[in-house]
Specification:
With about 300 residues, the chain is α+β, with helices and mostly antiparallel strands. The chain has three domains: about 30 residues, no CATH class; about 90 residues, Secreted effector protein SifA fold (2-Layer Sandwich), CATH 3.30.2440; about 170 residues, no CATH class. Helix content is about 35%, strand content about 30%. The chain is built from ten helices and 14 strands. The protein has a nine-stranded mixed sheet, sandwiched between helices. It is elongated, with a radius of gyration of 25 Å.
């Protein structure tokens, strides 16, 4: 027999089922009963065929959940768009601007049901150059730092993944004759400290909780030097504790700390060149943070 709560009176008798109580417990406030994914699912379930509704529920949960990584949330957004009846594909909108990217789920009136928002963090070339000068002045053994980082980083040199510092050196010598002359400069740029150093050029400064990936891709440059692409992704959902925190705990963590906001995730991509004379040229820095706070318009 299902669990129910009965409210009886002279003229009426109401029953609240166990599932109703569960929806009330997951409510974000008294006007929004049920979890975010449940409320959106009820609004859009007619968009899917019966054979797709089960998969759609899972992808919808992943799309709106703050404990799903951003990469998986974007994949789920695309999966949902591919599952719906063709008449509803225009409800899944991707808006790209120079300073932001948005993934928006809209209702039949073009109102936003849910948004996943990423904002580009601005840098100035002058501040980046200041940080490069800081890197040049470092006197500690950066080779030792690169050696320590191998266990937690990915290094790809000219299309080949390298697993230790000896392979790292040997691969670079193949196409970089000046490697021995500028290797100390390369070591200064190819460990995890580069991300924190370049981030000092942000205005305003941002940071993200959690953990993620660090990838360095090295290849020959047209000036007989070296091209380096350094990518760092931090996402609270990638942290072992990320999948265990509640929405309320997550929102509490996204507050001001040390004078700047914490964000769910942050991705930095740094494109650099090292000339054969040892000059460091930062060609481009892209940095995006997830500015979405868990909310729903229904």
């Amino acid at each position: 027999m299902p669990s129910i709560l009965r409210i009886a009176g002279k003229h009426l008798s109401l029953s609240i089922s166990k599932s109703d109580l569960a929806s009330i417990k997951k409510a974000t406030d008294r006007n929004h009963i049920g979890s975010i994914s449940d409320r959106i699912r009820d609004s859009i379930k007619s968009w899917f065929s019966d054979c797709n509704i089960g998969k759609a529920k899972k992808h919808l949960y992943d799309f709106v959940s703050p404990t799903t990584t951003d990469a998986d949330r974007i994949k789920s957004f695309s999966a949902l768009r591919n599952m719906v009846d063709p008449a509803y594909t225009d409800r899944f909108v991707t808006e790209t601007a120079p300073d932001s990217t948005k993934y928006i789920l809209k209702d039949c009136y073009s109102n936003s049901l849910f948004e996943l928002n990423f904002q580009n963090i601005p840098y100035t070339q002058e501040k980046i150059q200041e940080q490069i000068e800081v890197i040049k002045k470092i006197t500690n053994s950066e080779k030792e730092q690169v050696m320590r980082d191998f266990s937690g980083m990915q290094y790809n040199i000219d299309g080949v993944s390298v697993q230790n510092i000896n392979d790292f050196d040997q691969r670079l010598k193949i196409f970089l004759p000046s490697f021995d002359l500028i290797k100390e400069i390369i070591y200064k740029l190819c460990h995890q400290g580069i991300f924190a150093t370049i981030a000092n050029a942000e205005d305003p400064k941002t940071s993200a909780l959690g953990s993620g990936s660090r990838i360095f891709t090295l290849s020959p440059a047209s000036n007989e030097g070296l091209s380096i692409i350094a990518e760092c992704t931090n996402d609270i959902a990638a942290h072992p504790l990320g999948s265990k925190i509640s929405t309320e705990e997550f929102n509490e963590k996204m507050e001001m700390l040390d004078g700047h906001f914490q964000f769910k995730s942050k991705k930095i991509k740094i494109q650099m060149q090292v000339t054969k004379e040892g000059e460091i040229i930062v060609e481009k820095v892209n940095s995006f943070v997830n500015t979405e706070r868990t909310k729903c318009s229904i």
